[in-house]
Amino acid sequence: MGTLIVLQGTIVNTIAIIIGALIGVLLPKIPEQFKKTVMQAIGLAVIVIGIDMAMGTQNALVLIVSAVIGGLIGEILRLEDRLNQVGIRVEKLFTRKKDGKSEGKIAKGFVFATLIYCVGSMAIVGALDSGLLYNHDVLYTKATLDGFSAIIFASTMGIGVMLSAAAVFIYQGAIALLASSLADYLHDGVIYEIRAVGGLLIMGIGLNLLEIKNVRVANMLPSIFIAAIIMIIISMF
After folding, report:
1. pLDDT tens for residues 62-85?
2. In degrees rounded to 5, what are phi and psi of residue 216?
3. pTM to 2 decimals?
4. Cα(229)–Cα(195) distance, integer angstroms
5. CA distance 130 to 132
6. Which of 43, 127, 132, 168 is deepest in the core (most CB within 10 A)?
């Protein structure tokens, strides 16, 4: 039962992708204005969830320092650029040409959707929240976002998009279970600050969805670990 609770958000996310992909395959092309309105609505919801998470901080200074140091580390490591390069290279593997026609349409849809759904801050932050606090709000929101985007992707790339649901289940489920196993070794202060920093990243995703500002969220992922390290050090004194 405990495992099921930990994986609840991931299971909902997985089901949403499957249903969205099936709808996308069956429905005709979706009007562009519909896509835009849906994404804007989800973007606003994402920002609200991010604010709620960030407001849970018990030490604003830790939140700021973690975000700054983590962001600088991410910039030095060029995490966002490297993740984008991985996506481009993997996609190229499945877009080889033969007699002028592209091969592996199902594989291409699977890889493309997997990268979109897994290589992102919301997947990591949401899975951590599920594992540490059994709070699935982030993954429920991600499920909504992934479900609607699966409709759009599947309408153009086919049933391969649905197969990405398996990758999402394994990836997010593994993070959630790992976080749950570590929860007993982390005091509440560490967990709250990890969640608060994660909230900042979620807000960044919302701003990106609304096209207000291009926030390099992936470069801020180290902030989550910096917050944990800082809180563990503070607890020693």
Report:
1. 999 999 999 999 999 998 888 777
2. -80, 75
3. 0.77
4. 14
5. 6
6. 127
C-alpha distances in angstroms, 186 versus 164, 194, 209?
Answer: 32, 11, 33
Contact 21, 176 (CB under 8 A): no
Which pLDDT does position 93 carry in this prediction?
65
Model confidence over 127-173: pLDDT tens digits? 999 999 999 999 999 999 899 889 988 887 788 889 899 999 999 99
| CA 234 – CA 237 distance, rounded (Å) | 6
d(CA 108, CA 159): 10
Distance CA 17, CA 161 (A): 8
Q: Which two tokens stand for residue 203?
A: 């807000």
What does the alpha-carbon distance between residue 216 and residue 75 come to, in Å, rounded to a whole number?
Answer: 9
- Which has the closest alpha carbon to 201: 226, 173, 167? 226
How many whole angstroms separate alpha carbon 118 and alpha carbon 95? 20
